[in-house]
Design goal:
The protein folds into 3 domains: 20-30 and 438-548, Aldehyde oxidase/xanthine dehydrogenase, molybdopterin binding domain (Aldehyde Oxidoreductase, domain 4, 2-Layer Sandwich); 34-129 and 185-235 and 240-273, Aldehyde Oxidoreductase, domain 4 (2-Layer Sandwich), CATH 3.30.365; 146-180 and 276-437 and 555-695, 2-Layer Sandwich (Aldehyde Oxidoreductase, domain 4), CATH 3.30.365. It is 24% helix and 25% strand. It has 16 helices and 28 strands. The strands form 7 sheets. Strands 3-5-1-14-11-12-13 form a 7-stranded mixed beta sheet, sandwiched between helices. Strands 9-17-16-15-10 form a 5-stranded mixed beta sheet, with helices on both faces. It has a 5-stranded mixed beta sheet with strand order 18-19-24-25-28, sandwiched between helices. Residues 25-129 form the Aldehyde oxidase/xanthine dehydrogenase a/b hammerhead domain. One of its GO terms (molecular function) is xanthine dehydrogenase activity.
Length: 698
């Protein structure tokens, strides 16, 4: 008999990761570590032109090497069905749309042999002129119909132009952010195995269900004949959120040679084939009265995509709901260039968009002579300014006030460029953070076993965030049992369908399905008087109807970012001395994993502010700094004093857990807070990221 009691709630406790021992002892298995019998290795060949066509492929030298099994290119590659995302149509055409695109793949018995054969494969091209430079006045700029994921490209209320003309105080500035590339610790990797019953992919992905549903039709298979196994993932940051060309190439190569194939994306290849954050050029215009109350907000964004696929980042969408103003306009313009396709990178849209908006808010505060926190408080909206919907909860002001108290903001002298400490100019800055609350349909099963334990199954993904642990806590509370009695199985498309790990919606989406499955199981057990047969009792839940019928609220998480920096007046070298983030993100499921997510995002935001920049070589159409020796990212040593806290927030309009999601919001606003602190330290306003020494030393 299974007895359901009510132990101390697990949600809200700092439970250690349930798979922690597996990870630190090397037992956790990642995609590249799977090694089926008869395994061979695939090494892609990338285009070394930015635009044109493959004229010919000479494989004579490659195939003469010992151990080489096959060389595959458009002329002999297996045909796959047309894909809506043309990036997935690997080796199906002569066309080259960008430098680094896959044009061939070599398969050999060892990785070393495959690498050498790929080096010897000769590809000749018919080269065409290319265009890889983003500029706001590009003649190819156009208005996309939608921006990611499905927002209108432009919005307008009132008469922004007239309001700007009549405003007492106007800020009209252009801000830019460079291309930035995802660099998760684990590169993308796939082991593809064809069998009599279909295709199995051991893949590093943020969504096993999505990979299955995308790959299956390409190879003419029903989804049930494709299985994607991904129990452990070493980071993603959005780059593994949607199936990309490497997983298709691995499956294609395995089909061609009739043996299991292992393919990994090298660090350098990741700068071409796995997406990146689009560079942006943003013009922000703010009009206010002398007391800093906004009368008008205009935010225009210019960004890029590739020739073969449109991806439009939702850069100005946070501006639509952050601050009150009766007149407002936001626009997106896109140009298709001979570059790889941009894609998701942690908090797409909000991250570059809020850098520009929060920098402009700081400039407005200076122009009005008002404290930057007070300026934001004066422009708090009573409801979503664009939709008019009430906020399910909005505690931005509480975050600002609590952050100011903890950071010592009250002692701040607003005058820029006057504080010297140990020969360094010191300054502080603040910016707001926000991220929308998403929830997507998912399914889960919950099983009671005769030994008194429970198993919950859902095809969720743990990309290092602690999702497996959070779901264990959620399930335990829904079942009314200790966490030690609950086992959660994730990371396999054979499990009940789940939305991907991205958009800070994992816990909200998967957790809802888990709660509903566990609630159904407790009901079934009560009906049985707690009796569990030898084969157990299993129930399932599908949240599609619940998610589709949600109440109409504007749902967002909010936060406040505080930064203190020191700048060497002679060299321009900038150090971040302190970072503090204060967040309102609903109920925190696990404080330990939550803090990790928040400070990880904040560190990534610091990296954006000071270091990250993918530099395009206009002559060759390629990013010059395509490795971690030249593409610099921040580490823990780059900020010695970093802390993330949160305010209590009870929001009943979200999901059964009351959670808003925290994976993205930590990065949002951080770069602006650092840039605002640099201005306060030096009196130099840097509007183009990153904040390099040459932009501070004149």
């Amino acid at each position: 008999m299974t007895t359901l009691t009510r132990p101390t709630p697990s949600v809200g406790s700092a439970l250690d990761r349930v798979e922690g021992v597996e990870k630190v002892t090397g037992q956790a298995k990642y995609a590249y570590e799977y090694a089926p019998d008869d395994l061979v290795y695939a090494v892609p060949v990338q285009a070394d032109i930015a635009r044109g066509e493959v004229r010919s492929v000479d494989a004579d030298a490659a195939v003469k090497l010992p151990g080489v099994i096959a060389t595959i290119w458009y002329g002999n590659a297996p045909r796959i069905a047309p894909a809506e995302n043309a990036e997935l149509s690997v080796l199906q055409s002569r066309r080259v749309a960008y430098r680094g695109q896959y044009v061939a793949v070599v398969v050999a018995d060892t990785l070393e042999n495959a690498v050498e054969a790929a080096r010897l494969l000769r590809v000749d091209y018919d080269v065409e002129g290319h265009d890889v430079e983003l500029r706001a006045d590009h003649p190819g700029m156009y208005r996309p119909e939608k921006v990611n994921p499905a927002y209108p490209a432009d919005t307008e209320q009132g008469d922004p132009d007239e309001a700007l003309a009549g405003a007492e105080v106007v800020v009209d500035e252009v801000y830019s952010t460079p291309a930035e590339h995802n660099n998760p610790m684990e590169p993308h990797a796939t082991v593809a195995v064809w069998g009599d019953d279909g295709l199995t992919l051991y893949d590093s992905t943020q969504g096993a269900t999505a990979v299955r549903d995308t790959v299956a039709p390409l190879f003419g298979l029903p989804p049930g004949n494709v299985r994607v196994v991904s129990p452990h993932v070493g980071g993603g940051f959005g780059s593994k959120g949607t199936p990309l060309s490497p997983v298709v190439l691995a499956a294609l190569a395995a089909k061609h040679v009739g043996r299991p194939v292992k393919l990994t994306v090298t660090r350098r290849q990741m700068f071409a084939v796995i997406g990146y954050r689009t560079p942006t050029i943003q013009r922000v215009r703010l009009g206010a009265d002398a007391e800093g109350r906004l009368k008008v907000i205009v935010h225009d964004a210019f960004e890029q995509s590739s020739r073969i696929r449109e991806f439009a980042e939702q850069t100005t969408t946070p501006t639509r709901m952050m601050y009150a103003a009766p007149n407002r306009r936001t626009t997106h313009r896109l140009v298709r260039l001979d570059v790889p396709t941009p894609s998701w990178m942690r908090a797409p849209g909000e991250t570059p968009g809020m850098y520009a908006l929060e920098s402009a808010l700081d400039e407005l505060a200076v122009a009005c002579g008002i404290d930057p926190i007070e300026l934001r408080v004066r422009n708090e909206p009573a409801a979503d300014p664009e939709s008019g919907l009430p906020f399910s909860s909005r505690n931005l002001v509480a975050c600002m006030r609590e952050g100011a108290r903890r950071f010592g903001w009250a002692e701040r002298d607003p005058a820029p460029g006057i504080r010297l400490r140990d020969g360094l100019l010191v300054g502080t800055g603040v910016a707001a953070s926000t991220y929308p609350v998403y929830r997507r349909p998912s399914r889960a099963t919950a099983t009671a076993l005769a030994d008194g334990t429970f198993t919950v199954r859902i095809a969720a993904a743990d990309i290092g965030t602690g999702a497996r642990t959070a779901l264990t806590q959620i399930a335990a509370d829904a079942l009314g049992v200790p966490t030690g009695l609950v086992r959660v199985e994730i990371g396999d498309s054979a499990l009940p369908d789940a939305s991907l790990a991205g958009g800070s919606m994992g816990t909200a989406s998967w957790g809802t399905a888990v709660v509903r499955a566990c609630e159904a199981l407790t009901g079934a057990l009560r009906e049985r008087g707690g009796q569990v047969p030898p084969d157990g009792v299993e129930v399932s839940a599908d949240t599609a109807r619940e998610v589709g019928n949600g109440e109409r609220y504007a749902r967002h998480a909010f936060g406040a970012q505080f930064a203190e920096v020191a700048v060497d007046p002679g060299t321009g070298e900038t150090r971040v001395l302190r970072l503090l983030g204060v967040f309102a993100a609903g109920r925190i499921v696990n404080p330990k994993t939550a803090r990790s997510q928040f400070i990880g995002g904040m560190t990534m935001g610091l990296s954006m502010a000071l270091l990250e920049e993918s530099v395009m070589d206009r002559e060759f159409g390629d990013y010059l700094n395509h490795d971690l020796a030249q593409y610099h990212v921040a580490a823990c040593a780059d900020v010695r004093d970093i802390e993330a806290v949160w305010v209590d927030e009870d929001d009943p309009h979200l999901n059964p857990m009351g959670a808003k999601g925290i994976g993205e919001i930590g990065i949002v606003g951080t770069a602006a807070a650092v840039a605002n602190a640099v201005y306060h330290a030096t009196g130099v306003r840097v509007r183009d990221l990153p904040i390099r020494v040459d932009r501070l030393v004149r």
